[in-house]
Known about the structure:
The complex is a heterodimer of chains A (115) and B (113).
Chain A: E1 5-7, E2 10-14, E3 19-24, E4 31-37, E5 43-50, E6 55-58, E7 61-66, E8 71-76, E9 85-91, E10 104-105, E11 109-114
Parallel strand pairs in A: 2-11
Antiparallel strand pairs in A: 1-3, 3-8, 4-5, 4-9, 6-7, 7-8, 9-10, 9-11
Chain B: E1 4-7, E2 10-13, E3 19-25, E4 31-37, E5 43-51, E6 54-57, E7 64-66, E8 76-78, E9 87-94, E10 103-104, E11 108-112
Parallel strand pairs in B: 2-11
Antiparallel strand pairs in B: 1-3, 3-8, 4-5, 4-9, 5-6, 7-8, 9-10, 9-11
Amino acid sequence: SQQGEEDPQALSIQEGENATMNCSYKTSINNLQWYRQNSGRGLVHLILIRSNEREKHSGRLRVTLDTSKKSSSLLITASRAADTASYFCATVPPVSQGGSEKLVFGKGTKLTVNP
Amino acid sequence: DGGITQSPKYLFRKEGQNVTLSCEQNLNHDAMYWYRQDPGQGLRLIYYSQIVNDFQKGDIAEGYSVSREKKESFPLTVTSAQKNPTAFYLCASSSWTGRDEQFFGPGTRLTVL
């Protein structure tokens, strides 16, 4: 059951530019998480934002959450070639909304940062 | 070093064979998960376990089986009943509930010959 949808599917930028990825979801949520996956590797947790939070920062990452629009964005500032990866949003639909209180992942945004 | 290990990294199976993928964690996490990832796709939940000797089916459990005899270990068996098993399999763990941050292993790539 797909909950989150990332946009765009692919993004190619130059080193030093900012990268913005968006995630839209369908039901209310407990929290929304962003993960990163390098090619052929496991996922790495980046940031968790709760439903009562609007913005969160971690280093060069900035995540916003708009529960009225059921959307979130991940901004990576001053991107580096090492940021090249796929980025996934994952949401936790509550049981009251038909969910199982388990993470549901989107299909991801593939980011390429060119040196 | 705390973390999750998966083995093997690559696995080849002939049609009709069962294979078991290993997942071990030393993070003292209660919850463990198995996901399947197909090319260009997100992760789909196969099975999860929140406590030893208990596990639940995820969205795509058909053709798979699991056990949770120890807190640290959550092996996944891909049976011959799984019609399209070629995929990347990821194991994860979290401290308790499905709401928490999950920690992932490096994955096992299974190919059916």
